[in-house]
Amino acid sequence: MANHKSALKRIRRNEAVKLRNKVQHKATRNAIKKLKDLTSKKEANKLLPSVVSMLDKLVKNNIIHANKSANLKSKLTKQVTSL
Q1: What is the domain-level CATH number for residue 13?
Q2: Are the C-beta atoms of 2 and 15 separated by less than 8 Å?
Q3: Distance (Å, rounded) from C-alpha 50 to C-alpha 26?
Q4: What's the pLDDT at 83?
Q5: Domain residues for 16?
Q6: Residue 5 CB partners (closer than 8 Å, separation 6+)
Q7: How many domains would you assign to the chain?
Q8: What predicted TM-score, i.e. pTM, was given to this entire model?
């Protein structure tokens, strides 16, 4: 068990941050899945910028790696253009 107030606070803070990261990551994964399932090019073009924005935010907050985001954005863009 932690012996210092700052360590106890850090434990609480880490849990809060972990939960927030998990929620953001899950929301992004759901949005990606939704985008992949779309068959309408118009709807896909409308949803793509928001998914790209979500991925960029995850990278900015170090939740996912920049290369993973780039690969996902590339694949999604390629898929949307092929619709």
Answers
A1: 1.20.58.110
A2: no
A3: 15
A4: 87
A5: 5-82
A6: none
A7: 1
A8: 0.83
